[in-house]
């Protein structure tokens, strides 16, 4: 069961506008939505789980965990707003901690264990 984690920058700088007038955050959310639609067409994606993590301070950065359903993920994605500071280090650490936790729970890395 693959887990796809999306880490979106929700700092205030994402309120900048593109030459088309949309914000950078809107562009990022649109890219995630397009990916999700394209991935849903693949029959191998039936077991996929999705996570949505933002640059907000932990634990508020986790918007949708791997146990959430698709509707919750999409609702959280649409409700994202850009504010605050860019905390890239904390956001990356949160993302990797969550992925490593899932690997531990699912038993993916069980080689060498007795």
Automatic annotation (TrEMBL):
One Pfam family named in its UniProt record: VWA_2
Protein name in the entry: Integrator complex subunit 6 isoform X3
Residues in domain VWFA? 4-103
One GO biological process term is: snRNA 3'-end processing
What Gene3D superfamilies has UniProt attached to this entry?
von Willebrand factor, type A domain (3.40.50.410)
* Gene (UniProt): ints6l
One GO CC annotation:
integrator complex
By its UniProt entry, which CDD domains does this protein fall under?
Answer: vWFA (cd00198)
Q: Which residues form the signal peptide?
A: none
Q: Which InterPro entries does the record associate with it?
A: Integrator_subunit6, VWF_A, vWFA_dom_sf
């Amino acid at each position: 069961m693959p887990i796809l984690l999306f880490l979106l920058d929700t700092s205030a700088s994402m309120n900048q506008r593109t030459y088309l007038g949309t914000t950078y955050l809107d562009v990022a959310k649109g890219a995630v939505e397009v990916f999700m639609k394209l991935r849903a067409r693949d029959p191998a994606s039936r077991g996929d789980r999705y996570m949505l993590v933002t640059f907000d301070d932990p634990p508020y950065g986790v918007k949708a965990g791997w146990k959430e359903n698709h509707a919750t993920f999409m609702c959280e994605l649409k409700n994202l707003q850009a504010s605050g500071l860019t905390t890239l280090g904390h956001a990356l650490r949160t993302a990797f901690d969550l992925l490593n936790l899932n690997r531990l729970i699912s038993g993916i890395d069980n080689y060498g264990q007795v």
